[in-house]
Design goal:
This protein has 358 residues and is an alpha/beta fold. The protein has a domain of 245 residues: Rossmann fold (3-Layer(aba) Sandwich). The protein is 41% helix and 15% strand. The strands form three sheets. It has a seven-stranded parallel beta sheet, with helices on both faces. A three-stranded mixed beta sheet has the order 7-9-11. Helix 2 packs across helix 4.
Length: 358
């Protein structure tokens, strides 16, 4: 049994990872999360009473708080997912992305380095810091047959992707300079249950059910590789368990789709699964699609070459886009209380009764 420390564990990908670790392993897990607007304790409700789970409301920019948590829980590995991650928000207010993704990662690296240096040799050799990043650090692809590999040069386009690229460089520098054992993974677009409603797929589902316009940037021709979040959680555990220190692994879903195609697929699934919830006078959900002005610096295509993780670690996604997107729509239809609590703001009040330690 190992002790895992997961930063950002109340977020979308982080909570999926935590649920996986509790449900499918025997390890202990402590979540460190600042609980910004995107942190939601309800996403951890399925595991919050498990004796192997603990939660600490700590900002990764708080060095004293990190030192305390590391000393108290003595983790064998740190999985770093805490980040500001919404491109549109980074365009409107980039400072939060600099503070969390760059300065926060620096504070975590320094806390981890101090903690690691104080370990006994046997544990020190087993320790790893796994930094979870994004394919957006590579910019966009111009050819239809090109893919991001682990050696693709960085060319970030937005304040968000630039801040994540910076954090990747910091992590690798801390290994090169100080010897801190690290692994980096870069993933494609995630989707699935517990996805915060500002992102494309949950926003489309929720707006459609409310009879609201379904905004699509430009003409919707932007292409993304979609990765089901539970496949990603399994990949992250595979990497931290079997990957090599100093290596980078790309994680993709092998599911390229145009944004417009994603929205149309969601509309068709809702027509099948929730026809009775269509607004009065609406004959099909596709009629709600509305094209809006494209955002600045919008990358056209992302696509991951996930061959390395398949060859070396044996991971491949289990979900196709068709199976994963159906599961996602079914989950949102079955769990309206989760996303409605976000829309009305009541999810923030649930933090008051939180038990913070194991």
């Amino acid at each position: 049994m190992k002790q895992f420390l997961v930063t950002g564990g109340a977020g979308f990908i982080g909570s999926a990872l935590v649920r996986f670790l509790i449900d499918h392993t025997e390890h202990q897990v402590v979540v460190v999360d600042k609980l910004t607007y995107a942190g939601n304790l309800a996403s951890l409700a399925p595991v919050q009473h498990n004796p192997r789970f603990a939660f600490e409301q700590v900002d990764i920019g708080d060095r004293a708080g990190l030192d305390r948590v590391l000393a108290q829980y003595q983790p064998d590995c740190i999985m770093h997912l805490a980040a500001e991650s919404h491109v549109d928000r980074s365009i409107d207010g980039p400072m939060a992305f600099i503070e969390t993704n760059i300065v926060g990662t620096y504070q975590l690296l320094e806390a981890a380095r101090h903690y690691w240096n104080g370990m006994a040799d046997a544990r020190k050799q087993q320790f790893i810091l796994h930094h979870i990043s994004t394919d957006e650090v590579f910019g966009d692809l111009h050819g239809t047959d090109d893919f991001f590999t682990e050696t693709t040069p960085y060319a970030p386009s937005s304040p968000y992707s630039a801040s994540k690229a910076s954090s990747d460089h910091l992590v690798r520098a801390w290994m090169r300079t100080y010897g801190l054992p690290i692994i980096v993974t870069n993933c494609s677009n995630n989707y699935g249950p517990y996805h915060f409603p500002e992102k494309l797929i949950p926003l489309t589902i929720i707006n459609a059910l409310a009879g609201k316009p379904l905004p699509v940037y430009g003409n919707g021709s932007q292409i993304r590789d979609w990765l089901y979040v539970e496949d990603h959680a399994r990949a992250l555990y595979t990497v931290v368990s079997s990957g090599k220190s100093g290596e980078t692994y790309n994680i993709g879903g092998h599911n390229e789709r145009r944004n417009l195609e994603v929205v149309e697929t969601l509309c068709d699934l809702l027509d099948e699964l929730a026809p009775q919830q269509r607004a009065a006078g609406l004959t099909r959900y596709r009629d709600l699609i509305t094209f809006v002005t494209d955002r600045p610096g919008h990358d056209l295509r992302y696509a991951i070459d996930a061959g390395k993780i398949a060859r070396e670690l044996g991971w491949t996604p289990q979900e196709t886009f068709e199976s994963g997107i159906r599961k996602t729509v079914e989950w949102y239809l079955a769990n309206p209380e989760w996303w409605q609590s976000i829309l009305n703001g009541s999810y923030r009040a649930e933090r008051l009764g939180l038990t913070t330690s194991r």
